[in-house]
Every structure is written in C-alpha cells, then in structure tokens.
Amino acid sequence: MDEFKYVTERFKPQLTYFESKASFNQGRYLLMRRMMLIASLLTPIFIFIQSLMPKDWREIWSILPMVLSTIAVGTYQWEELNNYGSQWSKFRLVAENLKHQLVYFENNTGPYLALTDDCAKRTFIEVTEKIIEGTDINYFTLMVDPHKSLNELH
Hints:
Layout: H1 5-52, H2 55-61, H3 63-82, H4 84-106, H5 117-144, H6 150-153
C-alpha cells in the first residue's frame, strides 16, 4: 500500500512524540529508583560507621545518614508525585500499539485484511485517532485525580 499524507504528517509525528515521552519518563523513573536504592542502602551503613567513630566526629558524621535518608524518601516521593513509572508504561504501550497498527496497515492484515485501499486508509485513520484520543483521556484522568470520574472533571 502506498504511503499517504496522514502517515507522514500525523501518524509519524505522533509516534515520535509517544516514543520520546516514553524514553524521557523511563530515564526519570530509573534515575529516581537508583537514587532511592543507593541512598537507602548507604543509610544504615553510615549509621553503623557513625557508631564506631570517636564522639567528637559523631556529630559531624550524623549529617550523612540524615542527608541520605532524605534523598531516599525525597526521590521516592518525587517519582510518586510525577508518575514517571506510570507515564513510561502508558507512553510505551501507545507507541507499540501505533507501530502494530502501521504494520497491519502496510501489510494488509488484521483489521485491514481484504479492504480496498481507500477503506483501509479510512480505517487506519479511525483506529489511530481512537488510540491517540484514548490516550488523552487516560492522561487527563491520571494527572488530574484518578478518583474523579470524567463527568466530575467537566
């Protein structure tokens, strides 16, 4: 099936957007989790080392476990606040779904099997736009308040 304007002007930019957002959120999620893990592991070690130090050094050394535990809690809360893990999986899922639709469309298979070129193009546009539209609603409810219904948000 020959390429048409929708694929180059709408589909590919949207796919690029979802892939870049997935990559960004993945990086932030992994960074926050690594920082939390390292700080959580080091905190008890530094507390133990502090107990072995001479009394004059204990007060100065006590700052390190406090800073590390603050980093551990802070990175966990920051990730929870920004939903990097949820955002990563949501954007990745949409990007993969869009890629699957393109493969089906280009190979005249799945929902595009036995359709005329014009009908397949219209179906591809409809399916793709529903995927993108569904993502907007999921994003809106995820970021505003997951406990409110869509009717309450309007």
